Amino acid sequence: MINYIRDQVVSATTSLFSHGPMPLKNTLDYQGDQGLLGPGSISWRVIGDTAAFVGGIRALLVQAAHPEVVAGVEQHSRYRTDPFGRLNRTSFYVTETTYGSHPEVEAAVAEVRSAHRPVRGESARGEPYSAAQPELAAWVHNVLTDSFLVAYQTFGPERLSVLEADQFVTEQASIGALLGASPLPLTADELSKWVADHPALCASADQANASAFLRNPPLPLGVKLGYRPLLDAAVSTIPARISDILCLQPSQARSRLGGAVVSGLRWTLGASPSWHLALVRAGATVPPGLFRQPLPADAAEIVRATRTSRPSTSD
After folding, report:
1. How many domains would you assign to the chain?
2. Residue 32 pLDDT > 70
């Protein structure tokens, strides 16, 4: 029965990310490539944990508090008619830049830069915007970094030290720099203050529409039952000023339920299979008991070949 429930949760979760290209599809073609961040990075740990689900939801909510950024989403994105497609594109980018080989990172960044070129217009308050503007790219990138970090520190399996949190922010800044984002804070404290005190934020009709959609997205009923506690968990971590702009009401009781859902997903899903695959490509040690989902056949074969080629330690 337990295995059946676990299989159902895995199936429902992975189906959400099956509406686009699979990330790291050819990553094993780059054997030995450590990627931009590498197996010893904090980013592989943070983004590989199920708390990242909360971080992703939080990022989308907080990003909507910037009128020019949310105007670009409302006017150029197909998220209402193709919400799973947008989810997949965002997930693909995060996965490729975090865990991909160097060629995969470069390709993912180039694709985003290309997609952003035509995204320009005027926000509801009459301000012109372009997705290529360094300060707008910085808002999107920095909020994503801050959200992943806050979610991990609140709902992860352990808290990062101050040095580890700063390292995570610095690692993620190296990705933001590839997109031309600026400014890019390099410590967790600087990042948190930059997001919470950003002067450009205010309520807008576009923000209200985006927030309403995120509060009630068109998910299958079973998935929505799990999404709601994750949403509540995300809302509980948003700075008060931004919560007020977004008209969100945090609840610590609902946040605790969200934390329980994160823990349940961690037990059910294990750590990210993309993290596992990147470790295999990099030739790094795979921590025992961390991953629950099976590797693709070609990756599993590499693992078997590595094990059989190791010299025996017995006499």
Report:
1. 1
2. yes
